[in-house]
Amino acid sequence: MKRWYVATTYSGFENSVKQDLERRMESMNMTDKIYQVLVPEEIVEVTDKKGKKKQKVNKMFPGYVFIEMEVDNSMDMDEKAWFMVRNTPKVTGFLGSSGGGTKPVPISTKEMDDILRKLGMITKPKFDIQVGDKAQIIEGSFNGFFGEVSNVNEERQIVTILVEMFGGRSTPMEFPFSQVKKI
Asked: In whole angstroms, what is the distance from residue 85 CA to residue 91 CA?
């Protein structure tokens, strides 16, 4: 299973850390444990002193490098890959690690998907449920409940379902797309 981690670096050295990690992945045969190294950047339009507009590349997260790594069933990253990243020059640590040799916590899938969508690396999943459809909650504390879809928010990826509970009363409740299926 793959998960994304965030390494902290000296600000301004994100691209050199990315290049070092990619070189070390190859030379240390870690391409089966480390899949991608990413420094998210965006193009912004700025105006110089003379009023002329120019495009500039900005780092979205200065001081951070995102690394997609293999994890085991207990969600721990590979010991050798962790050691390699930690000991890369100009890497100061990991986001989500309390230090002292503790392994970091991976970034949530939703947060990483939002970043990848903003970069255009993945697209928003299409949701085939529409207002008026019958749906079933398939995950979470309301797993197995049924109801009618009253609202679909594509931007937030949330669906509002009138869930039948308390003796047949319909209660509007919001669920992420991933927790609902059409019936």
From this structure: 7
Does this model's pTM top 0.90? My answer is no
What are the counts of helices (DSSP H) followed by strands (DSSP E) for the chain?
Answer: 3, 11
Return the SS3 of 102: coil
What would the pLDDT profile of 30-46 be if each residue is shown by its tens digit? 999 999 999 999 999 99
d(CA 32, CA 99): 26
pLDDT mean across residues, the chain: 89
Alpha carbon separation from 75 to 8, 72, 94, 104, 107 (Å, rounded): 20, 5, 15, 10, 12
- Provide the percentage of residues in the chain whose pLDDT is more than 90: 49
